[in-house]
């Protein structure tokens, strides 16, 4: 697990690739999703949905093609990553299909399946085309520029539900900020990997905080401020919170300075307070969080957060069963922001815990790949990508369960939203790629000379 | 770098733990409170998700359920709604429930824990039992006869089986169709406003929720009090009552509708409905004795439930002597529900004992298994059995040769008492026509029915209003139906 030489298998010993494990887990994931799909039909209409076989075949085919890509192009990759992604995506499709039954005018499951297919397509493209994650290091500044461009574009498009984060072309809507997450993580990882010694050891020391020189810290802080600023301008508080957390975690992992965490938390607190009290859209959400039942007391009926809490409460320990809840009461964001409330109502605390643990496993596997890698860029990239998933899950799940103020974000893989599902598939593809490098026997034992010897890790 | 990665992972683990703890807080600890929040529609949705159980009359449902396809899915329907409204009440998605719909709501909606075969099982499985049925004591033929008899006139009928307390008919007129209140939305709200705004008060259950001055029918209570107190020992002896009779302590002369009331015996006073004699007897019994006697019949009892609450009938506990005299003939502040007066007739018929009146015979689970059964209970001993026997005789004479001849039924012994109650300021209102009666088919071991009929007939001319003319024929029709067939034992 650690990068010491003792972990390395001696030459000539066959390293277990665990592709068979992956395949059997994939079969399980697909079956679980299909059973869920059938369950919804049985609960609602007393019959298995007529297209259950087609749905199963479609999901199975996607999983199989993705598996083949991994088997031939990333044979040492972590066998848990792909099955978890397929299971989450499959369950998401089941929940969206289930919610479609309540909203005859808004059928989203088919669209989501198309986006999922596109996501898996991109997944395969990344796994097949990106032979070594270190290639990305070269495109750090290009990534940064692209990320900023993607984030700025929606400013020129009209706001949707109070947030200017959408691009609408024809009938398609796309959230470019979603994809900027990956690009920014790539940039942060590359920059921090290149400058981490300077960040950690140069500059002036103020009390216990080692302050790096402006020359080193300046550019990255500027980029970060720019992106968070743009997001605040677009009223996308969730994503700006995500970027903030991502930046702090990556900075901490790169420099090991606890002070950064403290400064980060302080700044986050100040920023959240300022935005929460000054920006009306955000302010109303903070008010909702502090008193979710205010609208009931005012006689206007329950707001979305109150409805969400009602849904979770209705689920109890074991849930009402798929298709038997009343998530329709939550309203228009039931398939996106609040899809977790449906999971909580129909699968109960048991199902919700299982979902959280699936995400935790996905994140843990990303961290594990980060630990096992030997190049700082790969490490930081793995940690960054896994943290994106973790923070996203925390922010949205914490929001809909009343733990933190609600910010419009998509539950990875689960929620309706094309850009989100595509982005998350790319994240998993990159994690597959880095975990393949991490678990691959040392290059010199397989393809000696094709890859340059790695820089020893300076901890 | 590795320790920092581990620490970052630990941070994320803390976030995961916070999520899990918070989810458990919402889904387990606060769940009950959130489920019961009145703004949470889930309770209402669950309530109307399945057809409601039915209310049965003669073994046949008088209610039904209709799948509306709306969020609140099943709506209540009623068969012969106006006839049975004073029994069933309404079950409205907007305005809640009343009467049997209310009293047996847990059974009908399927939420009563007794419906589940295993205790607590449904709490765990979250399953809902299908709605159960409420089997009423009402007999369709009797109910229909009473409704037909009132013919839309303002009034009410209550009929009881004296030996058991079973309520055989409970009719209020004019009535309404509770089905118009079942659902939600504009038509329901409009119907509600229309029914509540109507001067006829169709939603008022006159049989159990409206009290009227009982007029001369109250003389049965006064007679029972006088006999029980020993004020009268021989019902055929002269009572030494003057005519004209001046109310004690006043100059007001109490009139009689009938002639020949001077010094009349108790039997004659009942037969011809002499105000003077009965007022004088009430005064002789005294306030305490009269209050006690009235309360033994059920007056002043606010706790009577059939299982819906019955309005308390009133006999004042603090009166001057002239007020007592008026109260003894069912005037002044004395008021009674039709059910109360049916209980007076039933007490006489059942040898002085009143069986607790009830409307729901038993409740069943969806499959027909009996969940609960209402047994016969004794309510009160209203008078001594000997007194009851004498009153039976006197009331029978009212029908055979007195003021209540219109209630006579061939082949049955019928006892009755007419009443014409004054009301309004200075008796300006149109009098109410009363008739209370019991009937025993020849050869039957005991009386089969006791009935009270009240008609507030604003249309008729005052002189025509009399218990015998308007109320007695209705009572007769009701009793004939009650005696016609052996009571069904569901």
Automatic annotation (TrEMBL), chain A:
- Transmembrane stretches, by residue range? 21-40, 52-72, 79-97, 109-130, 139-159, 179-195, 216-233, 260-278, 347-368, 380-404, 410-432
InterPro entries assigned: FtsW/RodA
Superkingdom, taxonomy of origin: Bacteria
> How does the protein's chain sit in the membrane according to the entry?
Multi-pass membrane protein
Q: Does the keyword Transmembrane apply?
A: yes
UniProt KW Ion transport keyword:
no
Q: Which UniProt keywords apply?
A: Cell shape, Membrane, Transmembrane, Transmembrane helix
Q: Can you say where in the cell this protein is located?
A: Membrane
Protein name (record): FtsW/RodA/SpoVE family cell cycle protein
Organism (species): Streptomyces solicathayae
TrEMBL record, chain B:
- The residue range of the signal peptide is 1-23
Instruction: Please give the InterPro entries that the UniProt record associates with this protein.
Output: Beta-lactam/transpept, Beta-lactam/transpept-like, PBPA_dimer, PCN-bd_Tpept
**Penicillin-binding protein transpeptidase domain sequence ranges:** 155-480
Which keywords annotate this record? Signal
Q: Does the keyword Signal apply?
A: yes
* Highest taxon, organism lineage: Bacteria
User: Heme: is it a keyword of this entry?
Assistant: no
List residues of the Penicillin binding protein A dimerisation domain.
Answer: 52-129
Q: Which PANTHER family match?
A: PENICILLIN-BINDING PROTEIN 4B, PEPTIDOGLYCAN D,D-TRANSPEPTIDASE
Under what name is this protein listed? Penicillin-binding transpeptidase domain-containing protein
Taxonomic source organism: Streptomyces solicathayae
